[in-house]
Write a structure and sequence with these properties.
By secondary structure, this protein is mainly alpha-helical. The chain has two domains: 102 residues, RNA polymerase sigma factor, region 2, helix turn helix motif (Rna Polymerase Sigma Factor, Chain: A); 78 residues, Arc Repressor Mutant, subunit A.
Length: 183
Amino acid sequence: MLDVRTREVILNKDSTAVAKPTKVIIGTLYEEYYERIVRYIFVRINDQNEAENLGGDVFLKALQSLNSYRGRSEQMRAWLFKIAHNLVVDYFRKMSKRKAVSLSDVEVRDSVSIEEAVAAKLEIERLSEALKQLTPAQREVIGLRFFAGLSSAEVGKTLGKSSGAVREMQRAAVETLRKQIYV
């Protein structure tokens, strides 16, 4: 496997590295991971618009630091989620300094009935409340594992923990969520 030391290497679907220009690398990563990253961020901050903004920022930061990336090409996914994690931490740091005003952001599209929109909103609120009962580390693991689709090993690399510790936090978090949601 090639080492990503220049701006000219990207992963193929079969996990082999081939030479590509930098814009193609970021474009390919964006197409493959943008939705997962936005879902992960949304689960953490519970604001769709801000999650989409931060998702774009992840790829902007990746583009800016691609020259200095020294990992192997198969580690790029974990690298992107580490950037997303850092941006979420920065977001919470900024938000703690602001005065928060709670607004209900329900976007009802023409193709969705009001009943479906209300049911979805209630389900999201129920999940959000249940997620608040978890520790910050457990929320992070749930977000990365289920909403971003990372493996235990990738989550471990992102959070600096072993994959066994990640699986144990996941187990405890799922148990807590079950108790909260199915009471």
